[in-house]
Every structure is written in structure tokens, then in C-alpha cells.
Amino acid sequence: MDAARTGLLLVDLQNDFLDPKGAYGRAGQGAPEIAALPARLAPLAGAMRRAGGWIVSTHFTLVPARGGEPIVSPHLKELRPFLKKGDFLPGSWGHALVDALAPADLAVEKIAYSAFYQTRLEWLLRKCGIERLVVGGIVTNGGVASTVRDAHVRDIPCVVLSDGCAAFSPAVHETAIAALAPVARIATVAEAVAEIAGS
After folding, report:
1. Chain center to CA of 171
2. Which residues of 143-161 are buried (b: 16+ CB within 10 A; e: fewer)?
3. Where are the alpha helices (DSSP H) in 53-154?
4. Is the dihedral of CA 29, 22, 78, 145 positive or negative?
5. Cα distance between residue 153 and residue 164, in whole Å
6. Is 1 a residue whose pLDDT tops 90?
7. CATH number, domain with residue 55
8. What are phi and psi of 150, to 5 degrees?
9. Please, are residues 143 and 114 in contact by the beta-carbon 8 Å criterion?
């Protein structure tokens, strides 16, 4: 793995998702597997920085409209009725990458599952010479899967971290990882650390 041409893509590891004081934490929405991700991914982020690789974070965003009220898609309103004004607001604490993994070299706001949908991610990767992504984050069956599949159709190879991603249930996570095997390489965080350190 050529670290200089590799990006660690941290999908939606934001305070509003992970911190107890964030939007999901206040609503009692979470999972131990999701809460464990920052500590599990921190050694890989450190190895990537030391080797000259890139840290790229995606940030799920609720775009504020008139009066600051967030634009929330109908399916998300149904799934997460607790989302309110100020949640996932650009520039806010809740919108930011968790401290354990910050800072990122590149940050991309996203409004849907895929980090490529109507964002500048592909442009940034091309401009910065990033040719491969190592992907961790949440949720495996949502943002991670959609982003990896969109990378695949753009001929951007991905390594998906089997223990560096999580969903709201282990069974859903495992099913999603298995479904990604045809379009990405599956590896553990420890395997990725070893490869980056040896690059």
C-alpha cells in the first residue's frame, strides 16, 4: 500500500452520532460496536499520518433552511423523528469529527448515504493524488456500503475494515461486510496498520 496515495476514509464518525451529548446519544440511539470505533481506529489514523497518508472524513449534514430548520428527507424523518434544529449543523460541535480521530486532512459534507452523492469527494481525491481508500465508520450497511460501491464504479479501489466499521446490530454489520466482498478487499484494522507501517 502506497501511503502517499492512500486515504483513510472515516465515514460519519461525528459527535452527533457517537457522543452521549450528541443528537443520537440524547435520543438513546447507539450501539456498543459503534461507540468502540474511535479507539479502534485511532492506531490506524496514527500510522497513516506517520507514513504520509491522508485522513479524509465525511460528515453527515442536515442543511439548515429558512429559520435554521434542517432539511430532513422523509425516510430519515420516519426513522429518526428526534432529529431537530441544530443537529448535524455545519460548523457545529455535533457535526465535527470526534476528537479521538481529529484532525482530518480533508473533510466532506454529505447529505445522503454515499459520500460521493452531490459532494466534492471525487474531485478532492483526484486533486490530492489519492488512488485508494481504506474505509471505516458508520453504518456498515448505509454510509459505508453506499460509499464503497460508488467508489467501485469510479475505479477507486477500497479496503473495507471489517472491525473498523459498525452498524446498529452485529448481524446487520456482518451481512453488509459479506455483501461488500465482491467490490472491495476486506481486512482488519491490525492488517491495515501493518501494511501502512511497512509502506
Report:
1. 19
2. bbbbbbbbbeeeebebbbb
3. 74-79, 121-127, 145-153
4. negative
5. 23
6. no
7. 3.40.50.850
8. -70, -35
9. yes
Cell numbers that stand for 1 in this block: 500500500
Q: Which residues form the domain of 27?
A: 3-197
Contact 120, 132 (CB under 8 A): no
Is the pTM above the cut of 0.85? yes
At CA 141, angle to CA 108 and CA 79, rounded to 5?
Answer: 85
Dihedral Cα 80, 85, 88, 92, nearest 10 deg: -160
Q: Residue 126 corresponds to which cell in the numbers above?
A: 483526484
For 59, the grid coordinates are 460528515
61: pLDDT strictly greater than 90? yes
What is the per-residue pLDDT across 14-49, written as a single tens digit (0 to 9) for each? 999 999 999 999 999 999 999 999 999 999 999 999
Number of domains in the chain: 1
- d(CA 184, CA 54) in angstroms, rounded, equals 19
**How far is 8 from 134, CA to CA, in rounded Å?**
5
Q: What is the mean pLDDT of the chain?
A: 97
Are 110 and 119 in contact, with CB atoms under 8 Å apart? yes
CB neighbourhood size of 182 (10 A): 8
